Amino acid sequence: GAVVSQHPSWVICKSGTSVKIECRSLDFQATTMFWYRQFPKQSLMLMATSNEGSKATYEQGVEKDKFLINHASLTLSTLTVTSAHPEDSSFYICSARDSVGGYEQYFGPGTRLTVT
Amino acid sequence: AQRVTQPEKLLSVFKGAPVELKCNYSYSGSPELFWYVQYSRQRLQLLLRHISRESIKGFTADLNKGETSFHLKKPFAQEEDSAMYYCALKGTGANNLFFGTGTRLTVIP
What we know:
The complex is a heterodimer. Chain A is mostly beta strands. Chain A contains no helices and eleven strands. Chain A is globular. Chain B has no helices and eleven strands. The chains are: A mainly beta, B mainly beta. The interface between A and B is medium-sized, with 20 and 18 residues.
């Protein structure tokens, strides 16, 4: 089956530093990837839609200059949290949509970010 | 605006009892509805979608457009069904999914 990986699985960083999270589709090509944020015991909130070779589409309220998204290839999208603050601590989950398969989104295992 | 409502954050049932996880939606067009499941320490995965009208792991869900509902049902709950369940909606022509807040199902042995 289709597999999406995320790296790292968890990261701790200091306030003011930047952190990059990678999302890879391992056995399929994904023209579209999605980045979600999940707070404890809450639902997934879509942050942005990442389209290969073009700019990401951000949801309302998400700062595009703070959450930089790059989707340079059909199998890799990255999310960089710039100048991280403690309130950015969260669980970040990516998903990828199979370019050929159509509707289904495959989810990564998530990345736990803690900003101290 | 689209909205997915899962009124129950927590639901506990005894093994062998029927279970129903509620999902109501609000959308002006014709959405696609999905149920996703997240077992403990595992990633989110698709359970079923309304278009396929299939039964997965004994679960079924029928889209009721009149009541704008997509409740997930299983006649006899099993312990391995304990998980977090999310109802999700995809709008017409949209790429992304819009998730409900989720229901944590616990099946008591």
